[in-house]
Amino acid sequence: MENKVPIVPVVSSFSGLTMPVICMGTASYPPVDAGTLKSAIVEAIRAGYRHFDTAFIYGSEQPLGAAIAEALNIGLIKSRNELFITSKLWCTYAEPDLVIPAIKMSLENLQLEYLDLYLIHWPLKFSKEVSRLPVPKEEVSVIDIKSVWSAMEECQLLGLTKAIGVSNFSSRKLEEILSFAKIPPAVNQVEMNPLWQQKELNEYCKAKGIHVSAHSPLGSKGTLWGDNRIFDCHALKEIAEAKGKTIAQICLRWVYEQGASVIAKSFNKKRMEENLEIFDWSLSVEELEKIRGLPQCKFNSIGTFIEPSAELEAQL
Ligand SMILES: NC(=O)C1=CN([C@@H]2O[C@H](COP(=O)(O)OP(=O)(O)OC[C@H]3O[C@@H](n4cnc5c(N)ncnc54)[C@H](OP(=O)(O)O)[C@@H]3O)[C@@H](O)[C@H]2O)C=CC1
Ligand SMILES: O=C[C@H](O)[C@@H](O)[C@@H](O)[C@H](O)C(=O)O
């Protein structure tokens, strides 16, 4: 099958790496069982997805690995190289000595030799195994970014991943990394959708050559922290109706037109296919203007999984 998803270059990888701009998310809240997850991923590969987003904390690395093995087995793909796999360093391992063991654990879960992209999941470090949610604030501190980034660089130099980046980082934290990085972050994966547009961060990243990947582009409907605000948004509904598209497609197209890539999660075959149909039409200037004026609200923040701490927030 011809793949119609555009690709973007991943700068700062050594190998002319490219990344498909639509990625299938694998986090689900509440979590689904491994068999369901594996089948959904095989279905997504069949539908044309070639980029998958996982993380140690999601528990989805093993089912993703099993799905890749099955896709190879049944001939949906000929080689693992046809896929782009992103995973993330969880906060419990955000210490220089733990980074390489952590990526090796992820690779073992995935049954892969290398990742395409490894991200620091949050600019946070947990002092011990997290025993409860929300994580007590005494167990959380801001990551020592210099030493952890150096270990991330080592992961790339060792060939454990083709590129490295971050997630949920502010421009302030990125500025810090750029001041000492030998390999600059290729990607910053952040929440981004028409109701949380990330205009300034996106402009900052563009200026620095850091690609933005948008997680929760549909407002994380169905998760602990997400809701239906996007699907209930009157202005988005009007644009969708006028264009004969769905609200989801309007959101995903909007993200794409901001120069970012899209990480949407759907385990439903019809919606997986729908979410790929965003490349043969565009939003008009008036529609973009209307979206620009939408009131903003953040869905996913550290407050959803750690105890509130103004002191910590002020350092991020
Ligand atoms: N780096 C980070 O900190 C974070 C990363 N992520 C990553 O991003 C991915 C996506 O973000 P997520 O928060 O899951 O939220 P999304 O914004 O992708 O929303 C997912 C929800 O939207 C539904 N949905 C998907 N497509 C459609 C459609 N066309 N029409 C209507 N409903 C639709 C899904 O249901 P259904 O499956 O039934 O279609 C699901 O309930 C995650 O899976 C994860 O990989 C997410 C949060 C934080
Ligand atoms: O336990 C912690 C939370 O689930 C946290 O992992 C999510 O908010 C998240 O960043 C994600 O990537 O989905």
UniProtKB/TrEMBL annotation:
Q: GO molecular-function annotation terms?
A: oxidoreductase activity, acting on the CH-OH group of donors, NAD or NADP as acceptor
Q: Where is the active site?
A: 58
Record's CDD domains?
A: AKR_AKR4A_4B
Q: Name one GO biological process term.
A: secondary metabolite biosynthetic process
Q: Which Pfam families match?
A: Aldo_ket_red
Q: Which UniProt keywords apply?
A: Oxidoreductase
User: At the top level of its lineage, which domain of life is listed?
Assistant: Eukaryota
The residue range of the signal peptide is none
Q: Where is this site: Lowers pKa of active site Tyr?
A: 88
Residues holding substrate? 121
Pathway per the UniProt entry = Secondary metabolite biosynthesis; terpenoid biosynthesis
Report domain NADP-dependent oxidoreductase positions.
Answer: 22-293
- What name appears for this protein in its UniProt entry? NADP-dependent oxidoreductase domain-containing protein
Q: State the organism's lineage.
A: Eukaryota, Viridiplantae, Streptophyta, Embryophyta, Tracheophyta
